[in-house]
Write a structure and sequence with these properties.
Blueprint lengths: L3 E10 L2 E11 L4 E5 L6 H8 L7 E6 L2 E2 L9 H6 E4 L11 H11 L5 H14 L15 H12 L6 E5 L7 H18 L2 E5 L3 H7 L2 E6 L2 E6 L1 H6 L3 H8 L12
Parallel strand pairs: 3-8, 3-9, 6-7, 7-8
Antiparallel strand pairs: 1-2, 1-4, 4-5, 9-10
Helix pairs in contact: 3-4, 3-5, 4-5, 5-6, 6-7
Length: about 250
């Protein structure tokens, strides 16, 4: 049984459909990339998983249980098991990195006092940021802030981490460091990663499988090698970045 399953998911905004019956299953411990042109519902899909948006139709399953019908209060335990790294790092500028990472540890009662700070430093070390623990977000590069945000997401020991465009706006070196971290989380910690991305080096460098959303459905789910070898003109247009081809610009 897959750890995460989207079954016939539909979602519309202002009467305009975005997802039209999305089916996608993600296995435990894999790195799944969700790709597609802007506006096809990639970020919407991962926000549906943690209840930031509500589905219009279909079912969402996590670890053998249906979760899309849960009331808000029942989503709390699910959200502790599914972390999310947003496109903007969303760190608190008035707090040092170690205090940013310690915050959820204290809030949810996992650690107190000095123990919370020690655990926060351990998490920062996992993302190669321990030497910057006492610095403030404004003092750091975008890539360093992103790594700190990943450490904070790990504070609740999630089984799944959702990444919304994790390398957008980063220089190539910083982007590859983020890729390495995502891969290490899966390989060393067993974390399942679902990554929304437009970044070809990321997609073909670290993904186990790739889901391409087109016209509101999973147009193809394949390994990176299978995706690259595909003769599907829609897939090839996305890979090559050709402006002309069968892929239509969404009307929303």
């Amino acid at each position: 049984m897959s750890l995460v399953s989207f079954v016939k998911i539909t979602k519309a905004f202002g009467g305009k459909p975005v997802l039209r019956g999305l089916d996608l299953a993600v296995d435990k411990g894999e790195v799944m990339f969700i790709i597609g042109t802007s506006g096809v519902g990639k970020s919407v899909t991962i926000k549906l998983l943690i209840g930031l948006l509500a589905i219009d139709g279909g079912e969402i399953w996590f670890d053998g249980a249906r979760i899309d019908q849960l009331p808000e209060r029942a989503l709390g335990p699910i959200r502790k098991r599914i972390g999310m790294v947003f496109q903007n790092s969303t760190l608190f500028d008035s707090m040092t990195l170690v205090d940013n990472v310690a915050l959820p540890l204290r809030k949810h009662g996992r650690f107190r006092g000095a123990a919370a700070l020690a655990e926060a430093r351990r998490l920062l070390a996992l993302v190669y940021m321990d030497e910057h623990a006492e610095r403030y977000p404004a003092e750091l590069s975008d890539g360093m802030r992103k790594r700190a945000a990943i450490a904070r997401t790990l504070a609740l020991d999630p089984e799944v981490v959702l990444f919304d465009e994790p390398t957008t706006g980063l220089d190539p070196v910083s982007a590859r460091r983020i890729d390495r971290l995502i891969r290490e989380l899966a390989d060393k910690l067993g974390v399942t990663a679902i990554v929304v991305s437009h970044d070809p080096p990321s997609i073909f460098g670290i993904a186990d499988r790739v889901c391409m959303i087109y016209q509101g459905i999973a147009h193809v789910v394949a390994s990176p090698a299978e995706l690259r070898a595909s003769t599907d003109p829609i897939v090839q247009q996305f890979i090559t970045g050709q402006s002309s081809g069968p892929m239509e610009t969404p009307g929303f």
